């Protein structure tokens, strides 16, 4: 038997290797036209006739590219010679709340209108002389807020012209204050960044940088109304400009102008601008980085030096950085940079370069930085010659702004095609169900209109995307392009033999996931700069990287240093006895942010020195062993929520209630969030972050089922009325069930128990309360979803949500992050609201649920308990949590979004207001279960109850009664073991029994 299994595994491995090899071979050999020879090309008319089925996306606004295609098809052209400016105060209407007149902001005299609150708005009237395309720009003054960029939306005559107009970004300005500082190990750290307030001007353009020029708006002759609405952050409006589209001359035209004016190249000049010394940047988290390549300037063999700028954080459309420099004389210069672009395999990234706020010529709008796994020298120019830039003697600025540019149209094509796949997948499921017999004759071509043409059309879309990628300079052999090749081959294969489609439903779902990740990953246009060069054409260019022998010497030096340098500590490491020792169970990137905040804020404010050490996350036994050995730290952060009581019962933690200001600090959190850290009248930890369960739903599919957003279920009764309608259409509702995970089971049962008014224990945790009527009702409701309504017992909700098989369900914070980061094709298509609950007699809906997170606690062995309490108060404060969340998200992306437990800090986070409002509404009902000695038996037996009822068909009362007896036995046993007070009433009765 073992031999057969081994052979099977080897066979599977060989097949997987062949699939990978074929994908690599397809991508490495370049584009092969013969593959598509027999696939018809489709015109717009063909597509419209093929896609006759209703598509809810048509009810939403079109993308900008589709808007331009439609208007161009109607004969729209750029308008000529028109410019009109509208002063801030010349509005025709404003919202009744949220606006304010500001006087003398910055260097501007006179009054201006500020939109201070979200959803506040202002309207302006504009008369257009003739039909055509126009561009719109706006001067603005960012006002103190949440440190995030300003977001506004634009409606023209009451409608969004395209969906990108719903989210227009206007960046803030940040600069460094003071010089970099060094820890006592000689390592360099970023100086503090502060916001610089002042007037800025920006043309309305794509927030994600997927459109390379400012938007064109098609306006017909006559009067129009522009409504600007605040989506995020307060800012004042200076003036609004509506003008004919700006046409930037090409480099050839500019070069001819240079010749006509007699401009000459300068000689013997080289100006090196160190990139880490950026004078302005759009984001406080764009900062200096360390690089250990020997030619990177400056370089320190013995310590960390921040010698580059940008990196992974400099990747989002609209982010920019600016550098100042001075040239000695008038004349023509070359410009270049030493850069690292090892982030996108085989794909170039782009930047917009402006000099002194202006685009020098058209080609500077999309400077390309090709991929290479090493440092390179970019010499700005095309294949024929290097660009020459005319600069007058004196000071100048160079600004580099992130944009996706030409890749944007490819991303849109892939996203649209992914949507078509999702729609087709749902139609197949309606015919076959979610678990079809692969050998059945489903006659899909008869039941699904235009099945083969639709598959061919999607294959053609992928093929067009491949050709476009090669045109844009993607290197042959890039592993990232293989995803599109695989998608094309799958569509062609299914079109050739539609009988294979039912057996490929999971592969189709996986394909959608892969395409979403592909678009999301390539949209991150990261780039790292060492320095910029402004030099005379006669000057030689430096090398990109050091010779191999030099790099080998640096590696050996770093290796030797590792034997003497302490890498366990982060930042300043102190050796005296007065230092506070903090252990953090998180990744090193996270801990470095915490340590920097400590050294910049906490230590200067309090004078308390802090050593921070990293311990492995989710390995709490390290803390237990350290405590047993007398080596425990003063404070531990990142501790899992169920751990503090294990220490408290052993008298290992400080009771935080002993500090006079504990009640005030506790108000930072929802009262229900503190329940797990209470024991024997004391409070032994503070929550750092907090999970949450929400109801996620697909807006488009719900619309198809005739369910508008105001009809999305609020109660479990409404959910149960919805499930049959879903199942009749081949879909299902999702409620999580973690098989073989007792902790998961109790978290899944808890909402039903709490919403019925129950608690897990009685008599101060001495006995289980699972024998209560509330528990019986909750168990019936929970298990009934699986027994009576037959929802799936286990499923990958994220992928089935994307495919449309499960368009609605309950899930936690991790799903929110996944949908926000890895499902770009669903942007604007999904929503979330508080999870369903039980309607009370007073009409309120009880939505109680928990979300145990991570905590901070103080060890009783600490000799610096007062200082430790000051630290814990500082760390859990709204200011610290806000800064940490913002820094973390900007450094590691939205996937690292910090779900702080501090309610005020959550309100300040630069997230979508609708998301925060939904989470806060759910938190109004936040309630966690009590952690008691022997409580692990509760988690174990709730999982057993589910198994007995759902899988084995046992009567609910019997299954619960058996479990309660065992739980009570363990609770009593543990209390005896620790010498705690026992329940003197009915001590002989170990079970209690159901009434």
Automatic annotation (TrEMBL):
<dbReference type="InterPro" id="IPR006059">
    <property type="entry name" value="SBP"/>
</dbReference>
<dbReference type="InterPro" id="IPR050490">
    <property type="entry name" value="Bact_solute-bd_prot1"/>
</dbReference>
<protein>
    <submittedName>
        <fullName>Extracellular solute-binding protein</fullName>
    </submittedName>
</protein>
<dbReference type="Pfam" id="PF01547">
    <property type="entry name" value="SBP_bac_1"/>
</dbReference>
């Amino acid at each position: 038997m073992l031999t057969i299994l081994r052979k099977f595994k080897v066979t599977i491995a060989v097949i997987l290797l062949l699939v990978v090899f074929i994908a690599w071979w397809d991508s490495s050999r370049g584009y092969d036209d013969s593959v598509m020879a027999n696939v018809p090309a489709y015109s717009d008319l063909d597509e419209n006739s093929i896609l006759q089925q209703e598509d809810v996306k048509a009810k939403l606004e079109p993308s900008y590219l589709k808007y331009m295609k439609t208007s161009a098809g109607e004969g729209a052209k750029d308008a000529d010679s028109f410019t009109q400016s509208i002063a801030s105060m010349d509005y025709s209407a404003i919202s009744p709340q949220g606006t304010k007149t500001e006087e003398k902001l910055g260097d501007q005299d006179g009054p201006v209108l500020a939109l201070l609150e979200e959803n506040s708005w202002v309207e302006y009237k504009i008369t257009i002389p003739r039909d055509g395309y126009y561009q719109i720009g706006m001067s603005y003054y960012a006002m103190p807020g949440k440190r995030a960029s300003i977001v506004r939306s634009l409606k023209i005559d009451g409608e969004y012209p395209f969906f990108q107009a719903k989210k227009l970004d206007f960046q803030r300005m940040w600069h460094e204050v003071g010089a970099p500082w060094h820890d006592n190990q000689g390592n360099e750290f970023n100086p503090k960044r502060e916001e610089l307030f002042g007037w800025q001007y920006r043309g309305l353009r794509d927030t994600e940088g997927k459109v390379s020029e400012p938007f064109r708006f098609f306006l017909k002759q006559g009067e129009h109304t522009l409504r600007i609405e605040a989506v995020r952050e307060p800012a004042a409006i200076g003036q609004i400009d509506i003008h004919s589209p700006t046409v930037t001359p090409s480099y050839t035209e500019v070069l001819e102008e240079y010749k006509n004016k007699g401009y000459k190249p300068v000689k013997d000049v080289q100006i090196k601008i160190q990139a880490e010394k950026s004078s302005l940047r759009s984001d406080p988290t764009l900062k200096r980085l360390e690089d250990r390549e020997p030619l990177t300037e400056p370089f320190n063999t013995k310590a960390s030096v921040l010698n580059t700028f940008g990196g992974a954080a400099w990747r989002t459309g609209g982010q920019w950085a600016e550098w100042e420099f001075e040239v000695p004389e008038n004349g023509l210069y070359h410009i270049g940079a030493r850069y690292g672009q090892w982030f996108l395999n085989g794909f170039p990234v782009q930047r917009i370069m402006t000099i002194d706020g202006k685009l020098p010529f058209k080609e500077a709008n999309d400077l390309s930085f090709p991929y290479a796994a090493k440092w390179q020298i970019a010499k700005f120019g095309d294949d024929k010659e290097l660009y020459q830039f005319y600069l007058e003697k004196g000071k100048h600025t160079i600004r580099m702004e992130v944009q996706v540019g030409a890749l944007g149209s490819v991303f849109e094509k892939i996203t649209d095609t992914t949507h078509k796949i999702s729609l087709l997948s749902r139609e197949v499921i309606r015919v076959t169900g979610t678990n079809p017999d692969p050998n059945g004759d489903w006659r899909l071509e008869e039941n699904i209109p235009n099945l083969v043409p639709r598959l061919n059309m999607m294959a053609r879309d992928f093929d067009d995307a491949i050709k476009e990628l090669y045109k844009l300079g993607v290197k042959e052999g890039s592993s990232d392009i293989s995803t599109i090749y695989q998608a094309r081959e799958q569509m062609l294969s299914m079109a050739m033999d539609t009988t294979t489609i039912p057996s490929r439903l999971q592969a189709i779902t996986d394909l959608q996931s892969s395409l979403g990740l592909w678009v999301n990953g390539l949209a991150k246009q990261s780039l790292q700069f060492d320095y910029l060069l402004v030099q005379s054409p006669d000057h030689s260019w430096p090398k990109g990287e050091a010779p191999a022998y030099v790099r080998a010497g640096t590696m050996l030096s770093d290796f030797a240093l590792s034997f003497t340098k302490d890498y366990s500590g982060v930042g300043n490491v102190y050796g005296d006895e007065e230092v506070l020792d903090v252990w953090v169970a998180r990744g090193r990137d996270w801990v470095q942010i915490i340590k920097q905040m400590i050294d910049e804020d906490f230590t200067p404010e309090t004078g308390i020195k802090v050593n921070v050490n990293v311990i492995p996350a989710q390995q709490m036994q390290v803390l237990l062993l350290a405590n047993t050995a007398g080596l425990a730290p003063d404070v531990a952060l990142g501790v899992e929520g169920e751990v503090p009581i294990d220490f408290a019962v052993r008298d290992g933690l400080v009771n935080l209630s002993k500090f006079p200001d504990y009640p005030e600090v506790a108000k930072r959190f929802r009262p229900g969030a503190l329940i797990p850290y209470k024991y024997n009248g004391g409070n032994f930890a503070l929550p750092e972050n907090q999970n949450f369960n929400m109801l996620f739903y697909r807006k488009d599919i719900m619309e198809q089922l005739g369910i508008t957003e105001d009809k999305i279920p609020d109660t479990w009764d409404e959910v149960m009325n919805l499930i049959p309608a879903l199942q009749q259409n081949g879909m299902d509702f999702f409620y999580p069930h973690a098989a073989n995970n007792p902790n998961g089971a109790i978290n899944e049962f808890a909402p039903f128990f709490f919403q019925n008014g129950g608690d897990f224990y009685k008599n101060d945790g001495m006995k289980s309360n699972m024998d209560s009527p509330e528990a019986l009702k909750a168990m019936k409701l929970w298990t009934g979803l699986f027994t009576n309504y037959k929802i799936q017992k286990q499923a990958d909700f994220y992928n089935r949500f994307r495919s449309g098989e499960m368009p609605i369900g309950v899930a936690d914070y991790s799903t929110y992050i996944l949908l926000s980061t890895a499902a770009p094709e669903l942007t604007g298509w999904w929503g979330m609201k508080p999870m369903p609950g039980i309607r009370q007699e007073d009409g309120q809906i009880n939505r109680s649920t928990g979300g145990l997170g991570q905590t901070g606690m103080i060890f009783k062995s600490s000799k610096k308990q007062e200082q430790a309490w000051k630290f814990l108060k500082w760390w859990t404060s709204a200011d610290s949590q806000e800064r940490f969340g913002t820094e973390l998200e900007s450094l590691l992306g939205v996937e690292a979004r910090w779900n702080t437990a501090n309610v005020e800090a959550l309100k300040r986070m630069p997230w979508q207001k609708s998301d925060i409002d939904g989470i806060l509404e759910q938190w109004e009902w936040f309630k966690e279960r009590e952690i008691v000695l022997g409580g692990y038996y509760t988690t174990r037996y709730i999982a057993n109850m589910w198994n007995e009822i759902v899988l084995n068909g046992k009567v609910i009362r019997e299954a619960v009664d058996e479990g309660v007896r065992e739980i009570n036995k363990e609770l009593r046993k543990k209390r005896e073991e620790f010498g705690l007070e026992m329940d003197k009433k009915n001590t002989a009765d170990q079970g209690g029994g159901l009434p």
